Please model this.
Amino acid sequence: MLKRELAPQGGFSFENCQRNTSLERVLPELRAPNARKTGTTIAGLVFRDGVILGADTRATNDSVVADKNCEKIHFIAPKIYCCGAGVAADTEMTTRMASSNMELHALSTGREPRVATVTRMLRQTLFRYRGHVGASLIVGGVDVKGPQLYSVHPHGSYSRLPFAALGSGQDAAMAMLEDRFQPNMTLEDAQGLLVEAITAGILGDLGSGGSVDACVITGTGAKLLRTLSSPTEPIKRGERYHFAPGTTPVLTQMVKPLTLELLEETVQTMEVE
Amino acid sequence: MNARGLGSQLKDSIPVTELSASGPFESHDLLRKGFSCVKNELLPSHPLELSEKNFQLNQDKMNFSTLRNIQGLFAPLKLQMEFKAVQQVQRLPFLPSSNLSLDILRGSDETLAFEDILNDPAQSEIMGEPHCMVEHKLGLL
Model:
């Protein structure tokens, strides 16, 4: 039997880490490419009949917008959805794995999946990788215990809250939510508040932009509302900046001749290479 | 044997071993490992490298220890006996084994982790040298 430590394992391979660190040490101007982050505003709140989640749609690569209309609300179970902020690939793969695991778990137990189970699975995965998997998630859904909303951070901590916001635009969105949240709101009020919160993030944070996506989850099912609102109009660039004479009124005019004396004249040839 | 036995198998450094028998006789692999340095061979190159390498072992240790505290000594003993029995059924050393019974015993046949998605050993592009590995298993090498 092959000794256990020599048996090939799946999962992450750290083969190139040494090489990368020695390359960065030897060639100081070389830097490894940065992962694409979502630079996000995501928010969620619990209302009377269920949970509503919202997100913007911009994905950034350092300071360049990589995707103007990406989907940040991921499916986990028919009545559980998850918004992801942080490194785009990490949130995508983590939520897809959580969704598959929940399906297997539900088939194995024969029961409907619960939001607390999803949160625990996500927490345990993220804690295993000590925050190197950069995924901040807001998990919301309705199960037998009612509507629930959890926010999970990259190192594995979580909070159960009536409203939550994460991402680079969380301050703007949280300010809006803190100000206007009421328990037991109706769907229209909750949707309006959520759109306002995400819009605050889009307008106030450079990393968030695009349009507002939302997902309404109630006891009967979930509805994904893509591009619910577009707070930012595309900028119309002027074609020509030409002003007719007389656009600016002339108030007064004073002419003063300057007497100049030519002192020295030199010619210098310019080298064009 | 109790959970103490598992602890002796934990690795606290990453040995630079290859699966092919020409490993000990080859010179330093510059492309894959970078410039040779004693520090690189003793210390892990990434904070997660050690914890990931020992992850399954640590999980088993923790589970057996909890089981021993709850149900007494015999429960983990019996389970470890079943683990050892099931690990005897393998394909030839240079071929990937499915380890299906081991997965079922561990409960990982119903979960997906990064081990199942990334770097699946069944699809690895390198294979150990068949003759040398079989001879090593039989103790002839």
About this structure: The two ends of chain A are 71 Å apart (CA to CA).
